[in-house]
Amino acid sequence: MADAAVNAIRTYLSSKSLMPTAQWLQSYKPSIKLQTPPIVQQKSAESRLLTTDFTSTLQTSAASCFPAGVASPEVQELRVPGPVPVQVLDIEDIGRSRWSQVEAIEMEERGEMRKGHEVIRVVPDEEDNTDMNPPANSAEKGGPHKLLLQDAKGSKAYAFEMTKIGKLDITMPIGTKLILKDFTVSRGVIMLSPGNVDVLGGKIEAWDKKWREERKKVLKEKAGWREGMGFGEDAS
């Protein structure tokens, strides 16, 4: 019974363009609850797989990984049929200045949000502690975004959001999994649009925690900030 469930899970994941290694399937096997419906078993396996590092849990093949030279700026254009499963290592909102993003993070740290030109103190709902206001760094209208992606072989490439893609913003966890299909790479950058990317979800907790802890510092450094400078002071 367990072997049949594993085979069904393998088939289901394959239909999602995810080909887990035999080792991962065997390690997951004890977690399968045979009394639950097959679709629940399969969805549970998918959820678990999406929290793993694809470089150690997915099979690799020429068709399911980035081609050679994908990150080279010397290659004018590449067409990649895919599907290529990837994980997000970094994301940046390049539609907003880095200083404005630092300011938004610091406002959120103080429990504040901006409404027009007015700064408002965010007060949680007394009954259910629900914050009825969006956080200061809300990415609802953010973008376009630049991402650093990694395939199952460990190859990395930058990607640019050409057209707004749902579920893709700076609140997206690091380690989120995407499926890229029939995409173009131009001068080492993958061109993303709603038609060539599926956002599967997922998260790698340790990566995400580290990224969020360091995000403000990284943004400041990219903006040219140095220790001892005042906020917004010219770095030149």
Automatic annotation (TrEMBL):
<dbReference type="InterPro" id="IPR042470">
    <property type="entry name" value="RMI1_N_C_sf"/>
</dbReference>
<feature type="domain" description="RecQ mediated genome instability protein 1 OB-fold">
    <location>
        <begin position="66"/>
        <end position="215"/>
    </location>
</feature>
<dbReference type="GO" id="GO:0016604">
    <property type="term" value="C:nuclear body"/>
</dbReference>
<dbReference type="InterPro" id="IPR013894">
    <property type="entry name" value="RMI1_OB"/>
</dbReference>
<dbReference type="GO" id="GO:0000712">
    <property type="term" value="P:resolution of meiotic recombination intermediates"/>
</dbReference>
<dbReference type="GO" id="GO:0000724">
    <property type="term" value="P:double-strand break repair via homologous recombination"/>
</dbReference>
<dbReference type="GO" id="GO:0031422">
    <property type="term" value="C:RecQ family helicase-topoisomerase III complex"/>
</dbReference>
<dbReference type="Pfam" id="PF08585">
    <property type="entry name" value="RMI1_N_C"/>
</dbReference>
<protein>
    <recommendedName>
        <fullName>RecQ-mediated genome instability protein 1</fullName>
    </recommendedName>
</protein>
<comment type="similarity">
    <text>Belongs to the RMI1 family.</text>
</comment>
